[in-house]
Task: structure prediction
Amino acid sequence: MASEQFPLQKTEQNAQQIQTIVLEPRDSPPASVATHSESENYHEDSGSVSSSAFARNAYPGQVGRPLWTHRVSASFNAMADQIAAASQAIALIPPLPDTMFGHLQARMDEITNTQKILEGELAEIKEQIQGITGGPDTFKKQLDDHIAEFKLEQQRLPARLHNAMVTVSKATIKPLIMANGKFPSQFPATRGEFEHLTRERYEFLMNSYGLPIAGDLAAKRQAVRIFVGLPA
Result:
């Protein structure tokens, strides 16, 4: 009986020793674990040192800034350059809307002036049509008067051409024929005489040629001068 209890007690003591060994705490990790951790820490330190050195070499004046900030800054700088170039290109473009507006305004003014001219011509045609509504006899008389006036101007043309070349006071001038086929009796012989006629003689010549009498002495002289073809 005593022999059976002794082995049992011994077995229980061994079990307690085993439990004590297993539960014994450690102040430091095993050598293999410690060595592995130190190796990892070494690699991490080496990597951080390499990254820092790379950052210093890549951006010497901007140490400590993240890489994406440099990229964003470069992108904004490129966009600013493109906007500036676009602004310069737009500034070189001529103001097309203003130019086209000016061209259209000029065309509108031209069309308006043309319409006014056409309206005036239409009014003249209307007056002519109303003037010939008196019948064939009236139209024939008006036509004969225009033909007679044209022939009279043709007869006056040589005298006007001669007077147009007179520039000396003593040079002779030629009278123009009147509507009745005669010449005025008081027509001056020279340019100097013409320049010093009286008011009555200028008015006589104006009546002889059917000119309207208006204005002072200088105005009447100028009217007769233009009619006979004398230069100023």
About this structure: Confidence is low (pLDDT under 50) at residues 1-12, 14-63. The chain is about 70% helix and 0% strand. Residues 108 and 116 are 12 Å apart (CA to CA).
